[in-house]
Design goal:
There is one protein chain. By secondary structure, the protein is mainly alpha-helical. It has two domains: about 5-40, no CATH class; about 50-150, Up-down Bundle (Four Helix Bundle (Hemerythrin (Met), subunit A)), CATH 1.20.120. It has six helices and two strands, in the order ββαααααα. The protein has helices spanning about 20-35, 50-65, 70-90, 100-105, 110-130, 135-150, and strands spanning about 5, 10-15. β1 (about 5) and β2 (about 10-15) form a beta hairpin.
């Protein structure tokens, strides 16, 4: 901002005037209102203290399952980790009929590497849930870790 000279006091001030500040605030509010319909899928909500407690508890349960050598328990753990990630997506206000829809709606608000990592982990979950294809324990554990590490409160 340009320096202004006060005709009464004779000193110069830096920074915006009150009128300029009010006008900038007014136009920012107007812009927010004008763009509101385009915020679809944007994070609107958050996790309550109870939600965070649930996530932490469920995460510990899943991590305990990951210590097992049983492929069946690991298969169950990846399904639970996927459901937990989906729970967080819902609580944060992402819309869609399926996990994949909600994840796509969250994509532009996530780091692209994290998004791809979650998507790949979800594909492992789908293979476990809907296919008889053999998946190694390390591959399942990796998917679980990607889902759990992708959860942000």
């Amino acid at each position: 901002m340009a320096k202004r000279h006060h005709y009464k006091t004779g000193y110069k001030e830096d920074g915006p005037t009150i009128i300029e500040t009010v006008l900038v605030g007014f136009f920012k509010a107007l812009w927010w209102l004008a763009t509101l319909p385009f915020h679809k899928g944007k994070k609107r909500g958050g996790l309550s203290a109870d939600d965070i407690q649930y996530v932490v508890s469920k995460r510990q349960e899943i991590e305990k399952m990951c210590q097992s050598d049983s492929i069946y328990e690991l298969r169950h753990a990846v399904i639970e980790a996927d459901k937990l990630f989906d729970f967080v997506l819902k609580k944060k206000g992402y819309t869609g009929e399926t996990f994949a829809d909600r994840l796509r709606n969250a994509e532009k608000y996530m780091d692209s590497a994290i998004y791809q990592s979650i998507w790949d982990a979800h594909k492992v979950r789908n293979t476990v849930a809907h296919s008889q294809e053999e998946i190694s324990a390390p591959h399942i554990k990796s998917a679980i870790n990607r889902l759990l590490n992708g959860i942000k409160y």
